[in-house]
TrEMBL record:
<comment type="similarity">
    <text>Belongs to the universal stress protein A family.</text>
</comment>
<dbReference type="InterPro" id="IPR006015">
    <property type="entry name" value="Universal_stress_UspA"/>
</dbReference>
<dbReference type="InterPro" id="IPR006016">
    <property type="entry name" value="UspA"/>
</dbReference>
<dbReference type="Pfam" id="PF00582">
    <property type="entry name" value="Usp"/>
</dbReference>
<dbReference type="InterPro" id="IPR014729">
    <property type="entry name" value="Rossmann-like_a/b/a_fold"/>
</dbReference>
<feature type="domain" description="UspA">
    <location>
        <begin position="1"/>
        <end position="141"/>
    </location>
</feature>
<protein>
    <submittedName>
        <fullName>Nucleotide-binding universal stress protein, UspA family</fullName>
    </submittedName>
</protein>
Length: 161
């Protein structure tokens, strides 16, 4: 059913739960697992002009590489092949673009399940990906300090809204 699974990471501790879920799925289906970290280019806009762009770029890329190394550590516990990708742009747009261009069968993402004013103020990359993607998206609800992800998983089938 799944041959290529994409798991975006933001480097948070909670993402490790999502990676484990994606790796289990990849292992069960004999699928390739790919991890993507998007260096959020919008981060640059809020910096003072005197800030060294090169230094900021290096710092953000280092964070991304560290996050992808964490994914490798989690995925190594499973019998899966893992390929990592570091890209730059708006996270939700780059995740969708990458998944669609590279022919992925599934995107597995974490969500905090925020509602109300929190979601309005903070937004949700996962929600934007679900709305924009033609690739099915499986969301795994995670909570801070929670050891395992909640059993909530929502799949958006191709073409549904």
């Amino acid at each position: 059913m799944y041959d290529r699974i994409l798991v975006p990471t933001d480097g948070s501790a909670e993402t490790k739960q999502v990676v484990a879920h994606a790796a289990k799925l990849a292992e069960a289906h004999g699928a390739e697992l790919h991890a993507i970290y998007v260096v959020n280019s919008a981060t640059f806009a809020s910096l003072p002009m005197e800030t060294s762009w090169e230094g900021v770029t290096d710092m953000l890329q280092d964070e991304g590489e560290s996050a992808l190394e964490d994914v490798q550590k989690v995925a190594s516990r499973y019998d899966v092949s893992l390929t990592t990708h570091l890209v730059e742009g708006a996270p939700n747009k780059e995740i969708v673009r990458y998944a669609e261009q590279e022919g992925f069968d599934l995107i597995v993402m974490g969500t905090h399940g925020r509602g109300g004013i929190d979601r309005l103020l903070l937004g949700s990359v996962a929600e934007r990906v679900v709305r924009a993607s033609t690739v099915p998206v499986l969301t795994v609800r995670v909570e801070k300090d929670e050891v395992t992800p909640k059993a909530e998983a929502t799949e958006k089938a191709k073409g549904s809204s």
